[in-house]
Amino acid sequence: MELLPSPFATIAAWILTVTFAWAAVAKFVRRHSWAAAVGGFGFAGLGARVVRWGVPLTEVAIVALFAAGATRAGAASALALVASFSAAIVRTRGLRAADKVPCGCFGGSGESDYRLLLARNAALAVMAGVILVSRPAASLVEPFENELLPSALVVIGGALLVWMATEATSSLRRR
Prior knowledge:
The protein has 175 residues and is mostly helical. The protein is 74% helix and 3% strand. It has two domains: 135 residues, no CATH class; 34 residues. The protein has a two-stranded antiparallel sheet with strand order 1-2.
């Protein structure tokens, strides 16, 4: 039984796709800030390396699932990742006994109020839930299939350009 019409699921899938794509690219581009945030959550050694690389790679996988039309798998994966983020926030808040926790969101290294982060995660979880209780939408890229490869190359080129500019700026600051 379909509880919600498919257009809501499609909109939610697009929002989650853009959110996780942005988050993954930002973590790769601002990897030093992301690493600092991971350390702020209390991860060290092998655990820190797994989180540092595992989270953005999982975000990329979620984007790929949505793009391939596996919307329910993408939604379930997004829900699992958001639940993990939320558990890390609650754990860190308990360890620090403070309202501010590290926010590695979108590659950042600042701190945010844990309630705001949990509210954001709840909104993402609701969107994933909308997809899970709806008829799966068609592939998000189906209308653009003829333009998919050129578009992907432009996005990859843009990401590389941003990364190179970031590295060049960082290198120049060190001198």
